[in-house]
Amino acid sequence: MTFDCTELGTQCVELWAIDAQGNADYCETYVIVQDNLGNCPSPDHINVAGALKTELSDGVEEGTVYIDGTSTFAPPYSYFDLSDTLGVYAVTNSVPLAATFVIAPEKDDNPLNGVTTYDLVLISKHILGIEPLDSPYKMIAADANKSGSITTFDIVEIRKLILGIYTDLPNNSSWRFVDKAFQFPNLNNPFQTAFPETISVADAMATQIGEDFVGVKIGDVNNTSVANATMPAEERTAATALFDVEDRKVKAGETFEVTFEAAEQLKGFQFTMLLNGLETVGVVESDNVTASNFGLVFEDAATVSIDGAQQFTLRFKALKSGKLSEMLGVSGAITRAEAYPLTNHQSPITKMGVAFRFSGKIPTLVGIGFELYQNQPNPFVNKTSIGFFLPEAAEATLSIFDETGRVVYQQKGQFAKGENTIALDRALLNTTGMLYYKLETAMDSDTKKMIQAR
Length: 454
Prior knowledge:
There is one protein chain. The protein is built from four helices and 30 strands. By secondary structure, it is mostly beta strands. It folds into four domains: 1-33, no CATH class; 41-227, Immunoglobulins (Immunoglobulin-like, Sandwich); 240-366, Immunoglobulin-like, CATH 2.60.40; 371-452, Immunoglobulin-like (Sandwich). The strands form eight sheets. Strands 15-18-13-11-22-23 form a six-stranded mixed sheet, with no helix packed on it. It is elongated and about 120 Å long. The two termini are 49 Å apart. The mean pLDDT is 91.
């Protein structure tokens, strides 16, 4: 017998036996006709669509949504789509009719998106029972180590990310997605029962729409992450938090301690400290300040993230002679420089800039100068953002070069004092591989590398 693609499935056949004398008999049995190599024309297809949105209904862009499944007597299949700026994904005319499949979203880039020391302030309050997080999604965001609970170890993990010690969380992804239709049995403890991070569909006989997920940015418990390119960048800093430092001359080889004290009460603060001819050799621990509040693994820099304390003391060794006010600086290059005033109760929280104020007959103020930041995410597929800091409002030009030095994109404009961001779309560059970007003003310029993935 010969079977063709119209006879996939179970077919009844007769099995005959005949001897040399012509005696014969038969029985009925079954043959399962399969197309394991996918050579038959595809059956009717259905569409599968939905959206990835945050708790605040902002679309999560560039989430990869996988649809993996099986169809009777056909090989397994796998499709995917990237969500757009509204968070919408759609796999059209691909999934076979009557198929069984699983929808699983993923997004694992830019882990610092929306994550700051102020999140640690809020997580600490939750752990202490002072101010519990008010939604199950915020609690999932606080579970940095994916242990199914919120503990001080989650604070340790997130702080390492902020300090630049981690480039990503070792036991978690940047985003998690929860089936929007799921109802948490206990809103005060989302970990009481397992919550679904995929959607399963069995024997789909019609188009499946509304297969939605709630996106949770891990580490961001105050909803400040930028989920898509249409959302505005973070608010600019208001005012500056000053840290008083006693200025003095130091000699090469000298080991000494320096105390940094906030001039006003702060809920928390973070920044990168630039070291010019200094080496950090230790931390003088005190209440709410330990070695875990610092990143001391960088050349010519140290990172700081502190909540619950108004001062800290570091121990330095002078690699050359000089004056402290000329050897210590503030930066946002590794850990972004920002502080959170104690008296502010607005939502979102007001951020302040950071500067050192060195004592003397005429106090010396040292703040952030011109800085070009690493693009995020990097490498990137479709979109990335380039951040930079201007000490004063100025005209700036961003130029993108390929490996041959050819300019593939350029943007010029007037930019405000403080942090600024330029969004780049793959279509603007029309190239892939290693790229270089340069930011120029009348007074300063800097260049960095980035990778455009295929």
